[in-house]
């Protein structure tokens, strides 16, 4: 079955960096957009980024543009989100989703927590 498993979250100081990973299985990796969605406590889901099946099309939310970079490793069937210059407002549970943009119907992982605090 379709599986997406996130890792790489943690506690980081403002200005720091983290790299999130989304390991996938159960579907044709190059056939689907894979994206990232985050949810902070008390707030709704916020789409963050996605990368196309062939890795050539990447898009970012305005809030992370210029700081986050999404990429794909085809042999590893893994999607990465490199997060630089992190801000307290980036604190959230980050989930990877299979699809373009975001829909609550998309397959998704359980998420990895990112906390940005001094």
- Portion of residues within helices: under 10%
Helix and strand composition category: mainly beta
Relative strand content = over 45%
> Largest sheet, order of strands side by side?
2-10-9-4-5-6
Short key terms for the protein model shown above:
4-stranded antiparallel β-sheet, 6-stranded mixed β-sheet, globular, mainly beta, 0% helix, 118 residues
Overview of this structure, please?
This protein has no helices and 10 strands. The chain has 118 residues and is mostly beta strands. The strands form 2 sheets. Strands 2-10-9-4-5-6 form a 6-stranded mixed beta sheet, with no helix packed on it. The protein has a 4-stranded antiparallel beta sheet with strand order 1-3-8-7, with no helix packed on it. It is globular, with a radius of gyration of 13 Å.
């Amino acid at each position: 079955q379709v599986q997406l498993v996130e890792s790489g979250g943690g506690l980081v100081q403002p200005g720091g960096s983290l790299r999130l990973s989304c390991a996938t299985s159960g579907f044709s990796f190059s056939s689907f957009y894979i994206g990232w969605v985050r949810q902070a406590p008390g707030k709704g889901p916020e789409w963050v980024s996605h990368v196309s099946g062939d890795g050539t099309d990447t898009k970012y939310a305005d809030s992370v543009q210029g700081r986050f970079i999404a990429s794909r490793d085809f042999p590893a069937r893994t999607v990465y989100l490199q997060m630089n210059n992190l801000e307290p407002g980036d604190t959230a549970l980050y989930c990877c989703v299979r699809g373009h943009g975001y829909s609550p119907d998309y397959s998704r992982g359980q998420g990895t927590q990112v906390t940005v605090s001094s």
